[in-house]
Amino acid sequence: KLIKKNNGLFIPAHIDRSNSLISNIGYLPEFEYDGLEIYSESKIKNIVEKYKIKYPVFSSSDAHLDRKSVV
Fold this sequence. Notes:
alpha+beta
């Protein structure tokens, strides 16, 4: 709610990395994501199918940056 209140986008970054959301808790929590960032393009299809992802997927991006960091 805080993200939306401040006109932000909720896009967890690097969800496929060793220190990621999935690797830390073992699953992808059900939230209203604006998208998900998967670091490795070769893992996208498998992760999308496994977790039934219905959100836009980005790869190798800096989705974790806030607007102030983007030029």
